[in-house]
Amino acid sequence: MKIWWVLFKKEMSEAARNFKWIWLPIVFILLGIMQPVTSYYLPDMLEQFGDLPEGALLDIPLPSGAEVLAGTFGQFSQIGLLVLVLAFMGTISNEKNMGTHVMVLVKPVSFRSYILAKWLHILVIASCSFAVGYMAAIYYTFHLIEQVPFLNIVYAGFIYFLWLIFHLTLMVSLSALSKSTAFVAFMTLATAAVLTLLSSYIPNAMRWSPGILTTHSQAVLQSGTPDSYFWLSISMTVLVTAFLIFGSTLIFNKKELTKSTS
Questions:
Q1: CB 166 within 8 A of CB 210
Q2: Which of 39, 99, 177, 178 has the greatest count of CB atoms below 10 A from its CB?
Q3: Helix, strand, coil share of the chain (percent; to 5)
Q4: How far is residue 129's CA from residue 26's CA, in Å, rounded to a whole number?
Q5: What pLDDT is stored for residue 205 in this prediction?
């Protein structure tokens, strides 16, 4: 446990030196502000810059607060996930390419501690970035649009963050198994896109999928309750996430031991 904690603090210190504790939350804050501000000022922007015919009247209804926050989740799912993947896609791959991971693993450090420390430090930074971005979206939604029930906001936030955890875990697993950061980024983002599209077009067949969690979070914002088969998708997401992190640990362990004996 002591060794794992030392590795975790090392990763957090390195993230601080790379200013990830600063620019990642800033990115999420900007994304959180963007949706409510754009929704509120869209008619004015179209009137000023839309090159509309003289005398044209715009009658764009203001979206509900729940719709605005759901749109914020969409911003996080697209731009936010992309930024996180670009920031952390080489967390293990780069060390494997440079051979620096060997300097850590020759000491009394287990493969599990090595990967779990990296995985958890990513989740901590991502959770803080998501939290401040989400709070910024909530503040501007309440100020410009309307208030949304607090419990709905918290419930939906936890559901969405589980979706984010799944994809970040997939990224760490791919980084542990591959030396190509481009492959890690492409596969993580492609998986997120495919699961989201399939969950949108064939929801009945994808009730178990982690990709359906964004739909559940939006339903909670709207009505306070998720869609049907909610616990099935939650259970499968938790199981697949656990399988990814521990499965990648075992495979990474086997590959490194094979290299050391060959």
A1: yes
A2: 39
A3: 80, 0, 20
A4: 8
A5: 85
Q: How far apart are CA 127 and CA 84, in angstroms?
A: 11
CB contact at 8 A, 210 and 236: yes
Q: How far apart are CA 128 and CA 93, in angstroms?
A: 24
CB atoms within 10 A of CB 65: 22
Under DSSP, is residue 224 helix (H, G, I), strand (E, B) or coil? Answer: coil
Contact 202, 181 (CB under 8 A): no
Cα 176 to chain centroid, rounded: 18
Q: Burial of 250 by CB count in 10 Å (0-12 exposed, 13-18 middle, 19+ buried)?
A: exposed
Residue type, 221: L
What per-residue confidence (pLDDT) applies to 260? 47
Q: Which of 119, 111, 109, 118 is nearest to 3 (CA)?
A: 109
Q: Are 189 and 84 in contact (CB under 8 A)?
A: no
Sequence-distant (6+) residues with CB within 8 A of 128 are: 21, 25
Nearest to 136 by CA among 153, 155, 159, 120: 153
Extract the tokens encoding 221.
């914002």
Residue type, 139: Y
Which tens digits make up the pLDDT trace of 61-98?
788 999 999 999 999 999 999 999 999 988 877 766 66
Query: For residue 250, which amino acid is it?
Result: L
Structure tokens at 115: 């990967």
